[in-house]
Amino acid sequence: MAHWTQLTLNRALSRPRRRSLALEAGKQRPEINVAGLTGLAGYLIRQAQLWVFEDFNATLTPLALRPAQYSILVIVRDNPGLSQMALSEVLGIGRSGIIPPLDELQSRGLLERLPSSDRRTHALHLTEAGTALLAHADRLVQEHERRLMDKVGAEGHQQLVRVLEVFGRHR
Fold first, then answer.
1. CB of 65 closer than 8 Å to CB of 137
2. DSSP per residue over 34-57, as a string?
3. Radius of gyration of the chain (CA)
4. Contact by Cβ (8 Å): 123, 81
5. Does the predicted model carry a pTM greater than 0.85?
6. How many Å apart are CA 61 and CA 51, to the nearest integer?
7. Domains recognised in the chain with CATH numbers
8. Backbone φ, ψ for residue 148 (5° rounding)
9. CA atoms within a 13 Å half-sphere pointing along the CA-CB vector of 58
10. Average pLDDT for runs of 10 along the chain of length 171
11. Beta bridge partner(s), residue 18
């Protein structure tokens, strides 16, 4: 796995072992050797994360959705009636941190909070508008996944997903 990570991600992310810094006053700074980091999984994961976040954010920008909001909509769609607390736990967002994105999604008419059967919590549901926007977002996210697959190849994408699944499992 370490061998695959080093070779595939180095090639896939097209990151040279030396990097030139931005031009300053018409002069290019000397290249900086990063070879000591390119064998470290953490560094390579961070470089992959930068590419993925940049592309994913750009993908959702036309819909005025941030990645966390997309995740919320997907989880609520797949688990109608879920409580805010359960949502915050599964996404690893603190209870107070989940309120602002839920408020924004609700104010946009994409999500609604309904009293649950115990009347102490709110059950989350997508609205028709939320369902329609999420369907559009899902198509865009599939395009993002295809761009990632283009970078690492189909087999590399499958390997990457298998390797990273361990981090996606519920704690």
1. yes
2. -TTTTT-HHHHHHHHHHHHHHHHH
3. 20
4. yes
5. no
6. 15
7. 2-8+33-168 (1.10.10.10)
8. -65, -40
9. 10
10. 42 47 68 92 94 97 97 98 94 92 98 85 95 98 97 95 84 51
11. 33
